[in-house]
Design goal:
Heat Shock Protein 90; five-stranded mixed sheet; 12 helices; 11 strands; about 55% helix; about 15% strand; rod-shaped
Length: about 475
């Protein structure tokens, strides 16, 4: 589930806002709809109670004459009135029996509401029945449609339902019946709420998107700058502060930290350069002096030791300089790069093979990547005697793979082998164990390109070493 959620700060905040807005509007819509339904129900029951009360006041002839419409009149449009005003003879009538027809269900909620309203007006209610039926199924309305065509046309097209209320008062056997044409529920509130939600969503999302972009854009630039500086350490111009004040202070603090780290790295490079120069000078002098040693075996042993020290010093300086170049990476075809490295070993008669594959191009620092691949091949030759190189693409990454058929590495030491001066063979003999910097250099090269170096034992035996870099 989480893989479908946005990962950026902007996406997550926008999603949270949309979810919160929809939930809030759903709650608001539910409450408003319930309130509207309660108001409508109160209006319906009050109108029904009013018709029962007015129908009993026979002495109010003027008021009845003003309120009643003769059946032969020409009624207005349905939508002009909340209730269709039926003729008085239908709105109120007396009956010897209950108006409830066979098969009809009683509306107990409306019965209770109308009973309370009538009792507040002083009526003693013995029994009350309330039911809903369609206009055409009511007997009195059916007679009206037959005798007055104008009502037939109007009621036939009306979407209303008929509310029938029967009242029997204490001490009487007869029923007083009120009929009320009730319009369907107003759906306009739903459209209003949908439109309101849409407007709120557009306004709030638009404003929040603008604000968040002012925050996330400089944060994205800061993250990209930090990633490049963390992988390469190359000097860059300070990032221009932008965005809100808090983000500006963060960028300024990053610029200060980057400046201090850059100064320390520059001092480190100067110091290592001086150390390298100061060490190589006496080593060169020693190399000259051992020529005067008459014992050839002793002279060869001393020369090999000096050469060992010199190569170790070169590897240490190379490890320190990785990523400190200002030169941008070059788009390189990795198959050709691997072939050039393999040719170096083939010229020395080493058993190294290159498997054919698809053409894969990636932006790389050519010299450093060749150095990393060369170290992996050298490591395979040292411990297994052979090396098989292949270039392939996996999961959007370019993979430089070196496999051998040697003894492999114990599982508990694989991570340890990537640390400086750690060797698979315990002796200090370069011919068998090396200096312990080859894999460390290869890992540094992979990380310089934003990738990784992975080591794994092959199921069929031997070690697989992979430099994975983005294409």
């Amino acid at each position: 589930m989480t893989r479908f959620l946005p990962r950026s700060l902007l996406g997550q905040v926008m999603l949270a806002l949309a979810a919160a807005l929809l939930i809030a509007q759903a709650i608001s819509a539910t409450m408003l709809y319930r309130a509207a339904s309660e108001r409508r129900e109160l209006a319906v029951t009050s109108a029904a109670s009013f018709q029962l009360l007015v129908g009993q006041r026979r002495d109010l002839r003027d008021e009845r004459r003003r309120r009643a419409r003769p059946p032969s009149g020409r009624p207005g449009p349905v939508e002009d009135e909340p209730f269709i005003r039926l003729p008085r003879s239908i709105r109120f009538s007396n009956s010897e029996t209950s108006p409830l027809l066979s098969g009809e269900e009683r509306n107990s909620a409306r019965e209770a509401a109308i009973t309370r309203q009538l009792e507040r007006q002083g009526l003693e209610v013995a029994e009350i029945v309330v039911t809903d039926r369609s206009l055409e199924s009511d007997p009195l309305v059916g007679q009206l449609e037959q005798t007055h065509p104008v009502w037939d046309q109007r009621l036939r097209t009306a979407p209303h339902e008929l509310l029938v209320v029967g009242l029997r008062q204490e001490g009487t056997d007869g029923w007083q019946v009120a009929r009320l044409a009730v319009p369907p529920p107003d759906r306009g509130i739903v459209r209003t709420l949908v439109l309101q939600t849409l407007i709120l969503f557009l306004v709030l999302v638009g404003l929040l998107y603008f604000v968040l972009r002012r925050i996330t854009r400089p944060l994205a630039a800061l993250a990209d700058r930090t990633r490049r500086f963390g992988s390469a350490g190359a000097p860059e111009e300070p990032l221009i502060p932008s965005g809100p004040q808090d983000v500006r202070r963060l960028i300024e603090a990053h610029n200060a930290m980057q400046g201090r780290i850059g100064s320390m790295l520059d001092e480190k490079d100067v110091m290592l350069g001086a150390i390298g120069h100061d060490l190589k000078t006496p080593l060169a002098a020693l190399r000259v002096r051992i020529e005067s040693v008459e014992d050839e075996a002793a002279r060869a042993k001393m020369a090999a030791t000096i050469e060992d020290i010199t190569r170790t010093l070169d590897e240490i300086l190379s490890l320190a300089r990785i990523g400190r170049s200002d030169a941008p990476p070059e788009m390189t075809e990795l198959g050709a790069l691997a072939a050039s490295v393999i040719e170096e070993f083939e010229d020395l008669g080493q058993p190294v093979t290159l498997a054919g594959g698809a053409r894969i191009a990636a932006p790389v620092h050519l010299t450093w990547l060749k150095r990393g691949l060369r170290n992996l091949v050298t490591n395979a030759l040292r411990y297994a005697g052979t090396a098989h190189v292949s270039v392939l693409r996996e999961d959007g990454m370019a993979v430089l793979r070196v496999e051998d058929e040697g003894p492999g590495i114990p599982e508990d030491r694989i991570h340890e082998m990537l640390e400086p001066f750690t060797r698979g063979e315990a002796s200090r003999n370069r011919e068998t164990g090396g200096s312990g910097l080859g894999l460390t250099l290869a890992r540094a090269v992979a990380e310089q390109h934003g990738g990784t170096l992975t080591l794994a034992n092959r199921p069929e035996g031997g070690l697989r070493a992979e430099i994975r870099i983005p294409t």
